[in-house]
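Would you be willing to look carefully at the protein I have copied below?

:::
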Amino acid sequence: MADNVTSLFRSTAAHSPSMAALAREGGDGTGPVDFCIPCNPYFPTPAMMDTMASRLKDIITYYPSSADTITAELCNLLQLPPQAVAMGNGSTELITWIDHLLVRESLAIPVPTFGRWTDQPMETGKRVDMFPLQESSGFALDLAQYAEFIRTRGTRVAVICNPNNPDGGFLHKHALVQFMDAMADLDLIVIDESFLEFADAEQEPSVVQEAMIRPNVIVLRSLGKNFGLHGIRFGYMVANPSLAGRVRSMLPKWNLNAFAEYVVFMLKEHGAEYAQSLHQVRRDRLDMASQLAALPGLTVYPSQGNFLFVRLPVGAEGTVVRDRMLTEHRILVRECGNKIGSSSRFLRLVVRPQVDVRRLVSGLEQVLYGTRRGAAVPELAQGTSYSSGTAAVDRLVGQTNGAGMQDLAAMAVGGGGMGGGVGMPMPVAQPMAVAAAAPMGAAASMGPAASIGTAASMGAGMPMPAQMPAPAPMPAPAPMPTPPPAPVAPAPFAPPSGPTPVGVPARGGLTAAQVRGMTAPAPGAPQELSQAPATGWPNAQSWPNAAGMGQTG
């Protein structure tokens, strides 16, 4: 049974296996204690579940109302104009249509982040400019550096997740408004607020009202996460009527199911219970962070989501911890080694009630430190590096980008050369010191701005990084059948004449393999954006308002 369960993780590319799949493989038909799927554990209430169960036959027997009808009810609840809203079968459906309709050539996204923001544009041949969040700064997004990154690469679409997944990093509303003003010439800015209703750092943090009066801003919101109903698959976006209408016109008439309709129409009667559930999650987040931070060697990063991003102690391999927690303790955690910009030293742990947190902490103590049963996680051997998204890099650059370079990350790690045929020479490796006693990525020295000239200095092969042990000294590589190109001085940046060729990294800079593990700050980046004038509409005062907030706690 254990082998069957853990094999499910190896067969999934960027996400965790579904709870249904885990329950089937578990033998008894029940799933584990879930610290992986980020949903609200306190909503719907048991009484609401009982009501839905009593209506199950009608819900699954008959067609739902049209999406327009369900959207109108949601807008009445949120006090938003229906013309500015499009509802999707989960936020992922909306991400898909945003990419198809509104992303023409390139998209910038801080990493690590939700996998569909990197995968979806790559799958349709777009260039994804990945801005690495720095572990040294707690994965906080510096908007000034991000803006400079976008300008340097000439990216046309910018995405920000607030709070970010998996680290829970939060940006205040005034900073996002400044960023939108500074980037007003872009084709599109997307602010993904899927987890914002769990935040308590600001009373009204949403930029929903700003999006409706701007020509190039979309705000994405999830309903499954904050309502605790991932399986229903419903989410919505808010934008000016023109943008919202373009997306809405492509959606099927019945893209929302009858369960989604039933929940939307019952929400107006349960505002108080919903507000209380958010308050409880925020309290649990503080207590859970405190308990986890007490574990020796475990680092807990600040979060405004309903999850915590943690770095395991030196020597702990996340896949081993994940598998042992599942097979020995029936606890499911999210190991983040398959997220670009993260590594297997990091876990994302969903906020849950205290009785479950105590079980989590007990299991981690046994797995990490060898108490009570099981061996301790082995210490990291000299010269061994952590898994750092290799599978994710191969998947994105090799498989989903057509005929691009296969096994790019494996070649970057193993020093393999390029085969014949069309492709791009491997970039010059950036040396990174790896030591058993140092946290992952702490010694990386190349920041996003410093790597801009990397692509211009590519050679015909890839030198081995200093820390990579080789079985024997390697002779100089034999000349390729075709002569290497003559050295050319880096040319000033010029806009491309067409889409970036298959397999080519972000213009003038990072490949996906280079993004992994970088922690150094970008030198010379501006420290703040120019002041923006105060704009926007006041939020509605009823619950839930357009931002979904308004509660204290």
